[in-house]
Write the structure tokens for this entry.
Amino acid sequence: MSKPEKVTKTTSKAKIRQENEKTILKAAESVFAEYGFRGATTSMIAERANIPKANLHYYFPTKQALYRQVVDNIFNIWLQAADSFDDCDDPIEALTRYIEKKMDISRENPMGSKVWANEIIRRAPVIQDYLETTLKDWTESRVAIIQRWIDQGKINPVDPQYLLYMIWSTTQHYADFNHQIETLNGGTPLSDAQYQIAKDNAIEIILTGIGARK
Amino acid sequence: MSKPEKVTKTTSKAKIRQENEKTILKAAESVFAEYGFRGATTSMIAERANIPKANLHYYFPTKQALYRQVVDNIFNIWLQAADSFDDCDDPIEALTRYIEKKMDISRENPMGSKVWANEIIRRAPVIQDYLETTLKDWTESRVAIIQRWIDQGKINPVDPQYLLYMIWSTTQHYADFNHQIETLNGGTPLSDAQYQIAKDNAIEIILTGIGARK
DNA sequence: GTCTATAGAATGATAGAC
DNA sequence: GTCTATCATTCTATAGAC
């Protein structure tokens, strides 16, 4: 009845748990992205994670709990992007960095963006408090920065709020609508070179559009 | 056993059918918009249409058939917008008209736009053929027009394809993400005046961005 | 920690009276 | 054309052996 390898066993189990949770979260993200919360089923997630459905419920008691975890991860990525828009005197530098970061995220984590889109379309049952607090505060602070640039004559007098919406929509479009983009690209995903052009194009049109270029 | 009012009755029934189908389609559009095809349930649609569930299946045999009808209606609206981008020598005129039309559609029919977004996110199981034929052909023809403007020196040498994506994403964002926009607007939907500013802003930044303004 | 079997609830669709 | 009742299926979640 002795447990000679208690520590080792515990460590090992913790590792197994960590890895399995990661696998499940990844699978869940892609299923939730494709079908939304209601449309997704735990069987599909389990299947995509290559585990029996019962194991999924062992790691994540309910579908809700699993979904919350997925959404939390996505929100952390969103925060990363938000941080890249720092208080900077140069609009060209600040906006270029921000747009680039958002385009990179759309490229690297399109599923997360889709889950976010689904959540907003559903009227944000889970993230409504984020929207009203963190997102609202962040937005107001950046609106102030953009307004300052306008007051200093560094950019044209555009409406800061709607400029932000344009940046969000343009960058997230490459994640949320990547299937449509791929179809119009002859059925193949955008190459790295094409994506770079898309990125440059977005930056160029927006910066020129607000008069930040000479 | 006579049927004295055959014609009247038939007309009456036809009218009832027409009205009920319209009510159901409207309810279905909003439920499919919010939950996607899998997430939507026929009970929810029936409830939102204020009819017993069995009646819904009387008018639309299957959930699939109902969904196809909804998607077809949306595609027709899309075609309307597409037509507004006509072959015109003046990029300012053509693009202003197109962006305005797309913004108007987002304002008047946000649910349709959301169903479309959900369908694309799901990798277009129902509209894939539209994407590969109608949408692809249309896109290629407009890319050619934009390229001509560039060759004539009327606008800057931007990539036409990515310019279109920017227009699509910016305009559709006001439909698909209207909940987020409303939240950031203090919980109230954009007023007509605010929407007009958003519209002007989009047109101004994009046209300036491609060098179509002086 | 893994997995088969299954309970209990919800869903798409239909039968059949009115 | 309307509506109640219901079947067959699928879904979330859990029990319990290993």
